[in-house]
Amino acid sequence: MSDAARSREEQLELYDQGFTQAVPHNRALGLRFVDFADGEATIVLPFAEHLVGNPESGVLHGGAVTSLLDATCGAAVFMKLQSPEPIATLDLRIDYLKRGEPRRDLCCKAHCYKVTRHVAFVRGIAYHDDESDPIAAASGSFIIQGRGRPIVGKVAP
Predict the structure, then answer these.
(1) C-beta separation of 72 from 109 below 8 A
(2) Nearest to 57 by CA among 103, 123, 20, 89
(3) 157 pLDDT more than 80
(4) Which of these, 143, 44, 51, lies nearest to 90 by C-alpha position?
(5) What whole-number distance in Å separates Cα of residue 76 and Cα of residue 146?
């Protein structure tokens, strides 16, 4: 393995750890950060019985799909910013295009295509195997809450 490949693999592992440690909801869903590029993130939602909406269908619940799209779109914003900054979802529109397949993991890829002083704009898709055959598509905006201020917890008085 080349140094560049090892470095990328190590970076991906760090993103995945930070992504699940910083956001307990991501950890509870089992989300895994699997790829990244400038302004892009790919995350997987592994199939789990407790995330199924209708036990007879075996398909992941729409709320889990929404969480996957929101998390991936937010991750794409982080991949676009020069340094980590607090962000929050302002608006997220999701179009459900077809039913997912039973008992299958779901992938999501998002792209942050524009960043202004305080707002980032993102598009994402959720799919099983083929990005050209999406299950759901999202378009959203995220507020950049503190340009120049690091992400830290509040200090108790």
Answers:
(1) yes
(2) 103
(3) no
(4) 143
(5) 17
CB atoms within 10 A of CB 144: 17
Closest CA to 43 of 11, 20, 10: 20
- Strands (E) in 19-135, as ranges, are 32-37, 40-45, 52-54, 59-60, 87-96, 106-115, 119-127
pLDDT at 147 (0 to 100) = 56
Q: What is the pTM of this model?
A: 0.88
21: Cβ contacts below 8 Å, ≥ 6 apart? 27
Domain ranges for the chain, please list them.
Answer: 3-144
> Which CATH fold topology does 3-144 show?
Thiol Ester Dehydrase; Chain A (3.10.129)
